[in-house]
Design goal:
Length: 497
């Protein structure tokens, strides 16, 4: 009996691994939270810094572009330079960028700070998963750690609306950024105390960064987004629109050339796209990101600028949607086991398209209960069904040595698709709003805004419908679910976005 009591107490190793799990989950929560936390604060940001309707989307896109574009490079940096070292560097960059964003007195300063946050997030997110992999033994122990990591990532994405609403209304929109600083300081202190020192085995390999590839794809997509945004104010034929779009296309072509011919260790070996399944899954998740990011962006503006909800009320209004999305994600594996990946994804994309099409009925005289709750729940159910199977589809049949890359590409496709799709839809919404005001000078601005948002939802629904067609036509199905050997590794970042 005397031996039972001491054995029940956690030993030093258990305490250490528990501290590391808490540390990694806290970092992942902070990084994922910042993808969604700004949406509810957008009207306050617009009023404070004078953003235009289309310019406002850069507050979201600046983060997602650098996060998605540099995610693969961030993972490679951790492997070559040391995970502890890069984890701390990423947290420091993220925290200082958050401070700069909170102090921003101009649009350019805020957008630059958000872009720098994305750089920090792209370093931190893959390092969190790598640290868990090297800390916890394979088997039930590691499975529990991954489950906690995944739950926290989902919570970060879901909590963004409510956290953003509370901070914006009770303090200021600036606190959605300031709050990261004390959290970042605590995480760095814990990392220095608890993480094991780095050991870099191959110092020569550390010189083989594909920095050129990472920069060309990130700058190329950014130039495309900038050109699309500019089209709303100066027209599609203007040099200010066509020049950045042309530069973007050239940089993306250069990226393909770098990956195919020039990079010693390419971030994205093009041979991986020989898999039709992987290519289709990444195209589909690109379209899902384009519709999902736009939905959060426009619904946040509609609820506050048209229906007159406060920031806190808007955050609460997103809770049913996030709960349904989380439920859909947890049940997706059971649905896949019965219906197969292709059918599950097709149903998920179709539900998303239906929900977005339903949101085209919003107007200035609408209400949350009648016009928003129903379609947002249908939309969330569809997106929840898509999130896990789309990763499975992307890695099924891929060479095991490239499974991590295949999982990472899903996140890159989602983030870049979200940024590019949001740019297109924000331009469409702004043009429609301007046309509505021009056609009826006495029309209230709320009605014109609602008309613009509704028009954007038409095209967002088309993105989701295109995703359904892609997965139905190109994704293989396995009624019994994927074979164990084909199961995906946990996604490196952004699983809940």
């Amino acid at each position: 009996m005397s031996d039972a009591r001491p054995s029940a107490a956690p030993d030093a190793g258990q305490l250490r691994t528990g501290a590391i799990l808490f540390l990694v989950c806290a970092a992942q929560f902070m990084v994922i939270l910042d993808v969604s936390v700004v949406n509810v604060a957008l009207p306050a940001v617009r009023s404070a810094l004078g953003f235009s309707e289309t310019g406002l989307q850069w507050v979201v896109s600046a983060y997602t572009l650098t996060f998605g574009g540099l995610l693969l490079l961030g993972g490679r940096a951790g492997d070559l330079l040391g995970r502890k070292r890069m984890f701390i560097v990423g947290i420091v960059v993220f925290s200082l960028a958050s401070l700069a964003g909170g102090l921003a007195q101009s649009q350019a300063m805020l957008v630059a700070a958000r872009a720098l946050q994305g750089v920090g997030g792209a370093i931190v997110a893959p390092a969190t998963l790598a640290i868990l992999t090297t800390t916890f033994r394979e088997g039930p122990e590691r499975a529990r750690a991954f489950a906690a990591w995944g739950a926290v990532a989902a919570a970060g994405g879901s909590a963004g609306g409510l956290v953003g609403g509370v901070l914006t209304e009770l303090l200021s929109w600036r606190w959605i950024l300031f709050v990261n600083l004390p959290i970042g300081v605590a995480i760095v202190w814990l990392a220095l105390r608890d993480l094991q020192p780095d050991r870099v085995e191959d110092k020569a390999a550390a010189r083989d960064f594909d920095l050129t590839g990472a920069l060309t794809i990130t700058l190329g997509v950014s130039a495309l987004v900038y050109g699309i945004v500019r089209s709303e104010s100066i027209g599609w034929g203007a040099t200010g629109t066509t020049a950045p779009i042309a530069v973007g296309i050239v940089l993306i072509v250069l990226f393909v050339l770098v990956e195919a011919r020039l990079a010693k260790a390419p971030l994205m070996p093009l041979s991986i796209f020989a898999s039709r399944q992987l290519t289709a899954a990444n195209l589909a998740v690109f379209l899902l990101g384009a519709s999902m990011f736009a939905m959060w962006f426009f619904l946040s503006l509609y609820l506050q600028q048209v229906l007159g909800l406060t920031a806190i009320q808007t955050g609460v209004a997103f809770l049913p949607q996030t709960a349904v999305m989380a439920l859909g994600s947890t049940q997706a594996a059971k649905v896949v086991a019965k219906l197969g990946i292709r059918t599950t994804l097709t149903v998920g994309f179709l539900l998303s398209a239906i929900g977005l099409a339903w949101l085209t009925q919003i107007d200035a005289d609408g209400s949350f209960w009648v016009d928003v709750l129903g379609p947002s729940v249908v939309l969330a159910a569809g997106m929840g069904l898509c999130m896990v199977p789309i990763t499975t589809a992307a890695v099924t049949g891929v060479d095991g040595r490239q499974a991590g890359l295949a999982s990472g590409l899903v996140n890159v496709s989602r983030q870049v698709g979200g940024a590019l799709g949001l740019a297109i839809l924000a331009s469409i919404a702004s043009s429609r709003t301007a046309d509505s005001l021009a056609g009826a000078g006495a029309q209230p601005s709320a009605a014109a805004l609602a008309d613009g948002y509704a028009h954007a939802f038409v095209f967002a629904s088309a993105f989701a419908l295109a995703g359904a067609l892609v997965v139905f036509a190109l994704v293989r199905t396995e009624p019994g679910g994927p074979r164990p050997a084909d199961a995906p590794r946990p996604v490196a970042a952004g699983a809940a976005d």
